[in-house]
Give the backbone structure.
Amino acid sequence: MRNEKLFIGLFIFLLLLIQVSLRGILSFFHFEIFIIFVVILSFRTSYYESLSWSFYAGLLQDLFSAGPALGVYTFTAVIISFTINIFKDILMLKTLSNLVFFVFIASIIELSITRLLYSIIFNVKPPVLGSTLIQFILPSILNTLIAIPVFMLIKRIQTHTQRKIWSKI
């Protein structure tokens, strides 16, 4: 159990480093790996554990993004995790199609909240309707494509850990 948490924490850290380094090279692709972890771990862990993972992932995203407002990603990650945890019993993440749907919706919500907060804090005008496809839909599709292998890896880690626990009993 402890090794699983350590591995997931390091995995989030490494993927966020990859995201930050690729964002400079591929500036036309905007993707948020932390939101994938927020969605997956909100469904796969307990309430308090998912909120703490969301806080950790959002804080790392804030620290590595070099954005002008520290805490925006942390706030959105915790809000999305809290919302998923409220409706966790109703929604249930059992199939890959559910994951794709939830990551897509969570990505749009995360992008909307961060754009709104940046427009309020820094008086930046929100994007016009024509750029909505580029700024909201395409990054959400890219997040869902990245979420599929990440979900499979986290699911495999958790089943491997559960097998180890049951083999010791």
About this structure: The CA atoms of residues 108 and 136 lie 6 Å apart. The mean pLDDT is 78. The chain has one domain: 2-168.
